[in-house]
Amino acid sequence: MTPELMAQGALARQRMLARPAVSAAGGRAATWGRVVEPGTVDTTHGPILYLDDITVSFDGFKALNALSLTVERGELRCIIGPNGAGKTTMMDVITGKTRPDAGRAFFGSTIDLLRLRENAVARAGIGRKFQKPSVFEQLTVFENLELALAGDRRARAALTHALSEAQRERIDAVLVRIHLREQLHRQAGALSHGQKQWLEIGMLLMQDPLLLLLDEPVAGMTDEETERTAELFLSLEGEHTLVVVEHDMSFINALTRDNPAKKVTVLHEGSVLAEGSLATVQANDKVIEVYLGR
Ligand SMILES: Nc1ncnc2c1ncn2[C@@H]1O[C@H](COP(=O)(O)OP(=O)(O)OP(=O)(O)O)[C@@H](O)[C@H]1O
Question: How far does residue 63's CA lie from ligand 1's centre (Å)?
Answer without folding.
Answer: 6
